[in-house]
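Notes to self after the Tuesday call (sharing in case useful).
The group wants a holo model before anyone commits to mutagenesis around the pocket. I volunteered. Ligand is 1-deoxynojirimycin. Logging inputs and output together so the record is complete.
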Amino acid sequence: MITDPKTPYPWINYLGNEDFFSLTSNTGGGYTFYKDAKFRRLTRYRYNNVPVDDGGKYFYIKDGDTVWSPGWKPVKTPLDHYECRHGMSYTRIKGLKNEVEAEVLQFIPLGFWGEIQKVKLTNHGSEKKSLKLFSLIEWCLWNAEDDMTNFQRNFSTGEVEIKDSVIYHKTEFKERRNHYAFYSVNQPIQGYDTDRETFIGLYNGFDSPDAVAAGHPSNSVAHGWSPIASHYLEIDLEPDESRELVFMLGYVEVEESEKWESKAVINKRPALSMIEKFNSVEKVDKAFTELGEYWDDLLDTLSIDSGDDRLDRMVNIWNQYQCMVTFNMSRSASFFESGIGRGMGFRDSNQDLIGFVHQIPDRARERIVDIASTQFEDGSCYHQYQPLTKKGNSAIGGDFNDDPLWLILSTTAYIKETGDFSLLDEMVPFDNDVSRAKSHFEHLKASFYHVVNNLGPHALPLIGRADWNDCLNLNCFSTDPNESFQTTGNKKGETAESLMIAGLFVVYGKEYVKLCRQIGKEKEGDEAEGHVEQMVQAIKDHGWDGDWYLRAYDYYGKKIGSDENEEGKIFIESQGWCSMAEIGKEEGMVEKALDSVKEHLDCEYGIVLNSPAFSKYYIEYGEISTYPAGYKENGGIFCHNNPWIMIGETMIGRGDRAYEYYTKIAPSFLEEISDLHKVEPYVYCQMIAGKEAFKPGEAKNSWLSGTASWNFYAITQYILGVQPDYEGLRIDPCIPKDWDGFKMTRKFRGATYKIEVQNPSHVSKGVRETWVNGEKMSSNLVPLLEKGKQHRVKIIMG
Ligand code: BGC
Ligand code: NOJ
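Result:
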């Protein structure tokens, strides 16, 4: 619950679960789209606007001479009371002014292509109130990029229709579109406007529309320029009386033959049937209850009782919720991602899955197949694909050599969660070409061998365009500021090697071997194991700098991330992956590397990516050295990779340190420093400014980041240590020593595991006894138990 509308930055929420989505800020800013934030944007939004977050779903209330908005913006009349509650897929904003209370509940019913706004007005005063209510949205002319750039055309194309209380947006419907949008209210209206200039006035802002000041609309019909939808309602309220209205912003697709009702008049039937579904408060309330039950059910799959509210809130609610959002949105639409730039990332979407797969495994399976379909026979793949077409994006291309390996992560996570090995036999296209389909297992094999077949001079993996760190562009050598670091390769990639991919290969190579053995492919498993062992050796021989793992070899074969370097002596990614791969654990390499992380990379707000940060542009390193020191990939706390270190720490049993790192970046632990942190204290952000930054601790790029799934994975599977495996749940916690234990409820393969972990000897790691339904087990692998039942699992650490 937010109690001051002036948050340090707009704090937003996402509405929608499947096809239809809205972003909404705590003051009612934001926009709506169907499936694709670029191609099917319903309402307009101006990024990086002045003032920030202007444009959204607004209501204006005129009460005598006072004009105000329930969410404070856009009018900004001081409110007598304000609160905004962001919840699971809904937002409820309440404002109180001069004894009138206005509550706006926004949500998208399950499986529905429309956003509901239930508006409740209450007169708490002792006098009768005669209120004037204006709604406002601004239509986007569908293609969000074109909408913001192609004014010579789109100032002339806008078209609307108005019938009863419904305003229809039909720009381009007469030509190639089979869709229109509408904005309705379930009451007769006393007027409307659909032309922006008429409603607002050419020289006004959203805060002071002419129509609201005048106290009446003009019933304008937009022809070109900027179509809007604004309803006007006159509402009388006796003392203590309330009125509830249901507004709906909907999206409709119609068959070619069904497009028209009569000449130039659109077929409104589909819209009217959507409106009818929710034309009463009872129907809306029922759908809202269903949405709540849906979320309760999803979140019931995994929940903990740790004794610390902040941790419980992250694990049980917000981190899981964010994982759903990253699964749905990838990196497309947030307040930092404009919705027109990026599609679904190959590596991003695979990683997002590990935080989501337990929620809706069927959707995860479908996603894995979509992703794998954009791979090529040699294992390489498109770096991104478009959600609308599911086709690889050739403008961006491929050759990010870490990409293929993440498919092994997502696939094995899915099979461990579900036991559904049939995915491996599914025929999956290469390059989206069904005639080139092979079994999904062949895709994993291609991923594995893509690394084996692309080794450099030290028998380490060639980096290609970049590895996970998109900004370490070792073959780019760009001198042209108009060139993209992401898509340019001016040098042949035959020398630059990545220790991050090397560690990643050992981790997921071992997973691949394990999977092969699991399905009886012993020979393939043995052969693959040989390659993994060779990689371990190559890392020991050429990837160790004395106190930590090197990061890479550059185009010239020179070390990166070495004490020999003047800047960028040590990097987080290779410490994370080589520790997780346990390279040289017996020789103490893991411990030493992680101690070096503590010494050189850790700071008050988290672990920075590299140190010292680069102070000048290194043409042979690329984009990483373009960022000012302490920001983004150049010495920022890039939260996505902090959990790799947490997991690394659990490999050597250091639960205190793993948890310390966890709490440093977990949003619920940062509430007290919200003014510095700036972004939402309920979701992870991509980056917090690092120790060398101008403002250490200030965060950016909240919501859409692999940080969500990796932190969820680290806390649940490595710190709390409850890991789905092929034959059951393996329980191997690594917690702070002063914890007495914790409880987790985990639904797994149809059964409910009520897990209680006790820590009587106050250790960090080690399981002394495992009990299942009162029976002592021989190991900490809790077997698959009877479906449909609850089972008691007791773990005694020691
Ligand atoms: C950002 C990266 C991002 C890349 C691709 C870079 O400018 O720093 O974090 O992955 O662009 O969009
Ligand atoms: C964000 C990108 O989406 C992701 O793919 C990349 O790994 C990180 N930035 C680090 O560069």
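Two things stood out.
The first helix runs from residue 144 to 149.
The CA atoms of residues 601 and 608 lie 5 Å apart.
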